[in-house]
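User: My collaborator sent over this chain with a note saying "see what the structure looks like." That's all I know about it. Can you take a look?
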Amino acid sequence: MVGIGRGAAGALIFGIPMLMTMELWYLGFYMERYRLLLLLLVNIPLLVVLAHRIGFEETFTWREALRDAAIAYGIAIVISAAVLLMLGDIKAGMPLSEVVGKIAIQSVPASIGALLGRSQFGGQEEAEDDRKESEISTGYGRELFMMAIGGLFLSLNVAPTEEIILIAFKMTPWHAITVIGVSIVVMHGFVYAVAFRGTHELSEETPGWHAFVRFTLPGYVVAFLISLYVLWTFGRLDDTAPTQILMSAVVLSFPGSIGAAAARLIL
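Assistant: Without extra context I'll predict from the sequence alone. Here is the result:
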């Protein structure tokens, strides 16, 4: 029950930016249902892997991880529905498809937040155990997968806003190159340079370029691809020129890369 309580707190804290974003309310109404369904389906394996790593309690099998993922999704649905109802965005007389769409789209970031609740709000001893287990069991593929989760979470918070399209429209190619460079530098600095909790330290035998080539650059590529997917999901790439698509993805990859780097620190 304590774990579920932390999950509810995580769903509320991490989901509240989107729960109070007007663009998400409208997207829940008019978003094409096959794109919404695909987003919900993509979120399931992400939650299962995340639950296996930091679920409501220590999991030993994928069946237990699937159970925790289902609980997180359930918590997210309840929290999303309650907040939208409280804010008056869900009212009596609304079409069922609109109500379901609004709750469904909000439940994706809220469900990730529900599982992050244990990692961020757990006791000090639990946090230490998670970090020790992370150091032992995390493989290269899972590292990139966790970065994808972080990139998806932060991208979902920003992609629905009109500012992404406006910034991409105003940018020049030189701005885009600068954004890409800064994104990569920030990613690498977050994980390997500044003294955040969970910062990865390189051994003296490891050359500095090794982590940059093995983790930072692939991590940025992951964040970029996640940005393209999120923009497509929200219909931001429809009837758009290739150059503008690239610019929009570069803009969204900036917060996405920060989310990917943060995922390496906290997961």
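A starting point for your reply to your collaborator: DSSP finds eleven helices and no strands in the chain.
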